[in-house]
Amino acid sequence: MVVPALLFIIVFSYVPMYGVLMAFQDYNIFKGFLASPWVGFKHFEMFFHAPEFWNVMRNTIVISLLKLLIGFPAPIILALMLNEIRSRVFKRTIQTISYLPHFLSWVIVSGFVVSLLSTDNGSLNIVLMKLNLIEAPINFLSLPEYFWTILVTTGVWKEIGFASIVYLAAIAGVNPQLYEAAAMDGASRIRQIFSITIPSIMPVIIVFMILAIGNLLNAGFDDILLLGANPVLRDVGDVIDTYVYRVGIQNSRYSYATGVGLFKALISVGLLAAANYAARKSGNSLW
């Protein structure tokens, strides 16, 4: 039963890896991999000395950290809150409402956000003006100071419900006798959460934390490309993935873009290994 999954990974993940050869070549689409000249680490050096390097790295790290610090604990908190709801109908309703956005593409979600923040009949501007908090509509998607907040908030809203499903499943596996014993000893619901629920699901939290740290440089692509399409936002919205897309696909600098992408992949592997090593001391790790 594992064979189809292994074949899928081999064909679509491992076989295309020969493409990283472009990072060490001045790749010519007409000459191919074998005839294109080798240039060593030329493209890596070009990226390190590029004028956009520090800005791209800053945006990537800051956006990734914001998504990690806010987006990672959000589904855990939601799962803990849902677990305290006694009405099964209300609980299932909240679950359904919260995880449905996950199945919407970023194209649709970005359309919602643009409509919500629009200066022409945008709901947020209308509410703020009705409350006399602003005198004129604000074009939020054209102001760099709002971009990170909009990006992170939208991402959390889209994924919080679906990510909480795993934690709800882990909570459901906690031995009910632990709660009964704690209640008999006089522990409140809050005390039970911190003394029983969270320690019981900590192995799951640690595993997902390791994966999140390994993906730290994956600040996002679809959401940033769609919400940050305005050139004014490039200073705060240009991350490694969008930079690779722009120079590699739009400007046809395939070798240079491959080098930048390989650099990000190597850093991600290093972060994953470091996070796994740190987690191994707690007895919960991926390997």
Automatic annotation (TrEMBL):
InterPro entries: MetI-like, MetI-like_sf, UgpAE/MalFG_permease. Keywords: Cell membrane, Membrane, Transmembrane, Transmembrane helix, Transport. SUPFAM superfamilies: MetI-like. The keyword Lipid biosynthesis does not apply. It is a multi-pass membrane protein. Coiled coil: none annotated. The chain crosses the membrane at residues 5-24, 61-82, 103-126, 146-172, 193-217, 254-279. It is found in: Cell membrane. The keyword Acetylation does not apply. Residues 57-275 form the ABC transmembrane type-1 domain. It comes from the Bacteria. Belongs to the binding-protein-dependent transport system permease family. This is ABC transporter permease subunit. It comes from Paenibacillus zeirhizosphaerae.
